Description:
Chain B: Residues 30-96 form the RNA polymerase sigma-70 region domain. The structure holds two protein chains of two kinds. By secondary structure, chain A is α+β, with helices and mostly antiparallel strands.
Amino acid sequence: MLATYFGQDCPRAWEMMPWVLQNRATKKQADWLASHLAQCEACRTEFAQQQRLQQAMSLPSEVEVDAEAGLQRLLGRLDTPAAEEPKRTRAGGWLTRALVAAILIQAIGIGALGLKMWSTDQTASYRTLSQEEPAPATSGTLRVVPDASMTLGDWNALLHSLQLQVVGGPNDVGAYTLAPVSAKSIKPNTLQQLRAARGIRLAEPVTGAP
Amino acid sequence: MNDADVPADATDRVLLQRMSTGDRTALATLYRSYHGRLCRFLSRLTRRPDIIEEVINDCFWIAWQKAGDFRGDSRVSTWIMGIAYRCGLKALRQHGEEAVEDSIPEDRTPADDPDEDRELRDWLSKGLERLSTDQRIVVELVYGEGHTLDDVATIMQCPVGTVKARLFHARVKLRNVLPALAEGSITVKERNDQVP
Ligand SMILES: [Zn+2]
């Protein structure tokens, strides 16, 4: 028995056991293991132990955690974006409060200069807003800054309801360029709806002609 | 891929897609369907129910935020377990020693646990307490959750070879620690057991 265990097939049998237990092995592999187990008591013992291990690991957790109570707390958390998660502001996420402040200051300045300025100005002071513009602005193109607390789900839902798509951005102050999904979907009050939408910090037309 | 994986993953993908459009019903469905396995997975890290809930909620908070980013190059279950694993490690760091303390009073163990299950749990706990955290996680993912080596490597963000080594050493330890089923079974010396 001991001798057989250290036979050349045993390591292979050993390695194969978990995957046969998971039903992931091919029939050929499973058959091979079965024939090895038939002649190797040590591997048979190990396989029985492995089966017992799988059975024990599959028992439900004995730490009781109420799923419904936890879910309610999670849903409540989604509704309180003010309790900002640190992980929400990580790189690649939505823009930080500091950047929101920066763009609002710029927006006030732009407002004073007129909207035309925003879309055509090329000087350094406004470059962050218009840099990396993907294509010449077409009719109905908008520049929008979502709030840091807005979820991706709410953002998607809003774009869908207004028949808009992201065509550019976010630039480094978090402004996205949006365009109608199709020419037919241009609606006159899109801008007003965006400005009224929860989670939208700033919405301005790029061409000035919504 | 196991035959059972395909339809389950297709369902999960639909739920994730709906979540990316803000559908909370989809979130609730996914939450309920993963709650049991996440509880068990996380109970290998901590016995504290409040910490387990916190980690599950952190995990689904992230899944909710990132549902639209899911690229589909792994199964949804692998993606979610990976998030839960990272959230779990983070919670362990934050809570320190208190997370490791066994906080289940005897009378809190499920009353309807048949003797046979009780015996099996006791047998298992003797083995698991001898494993490192990483080894316990690998054993849970392979035997408890039915993940492949590749899945486990994705979840733990490490090379497949590392997972293989962790699984191997965990098995050798378990084999030597756990009372064997059959009479006269042999104890294997670790150095003799290296799989090529
Ligand atoms: Zn053998």
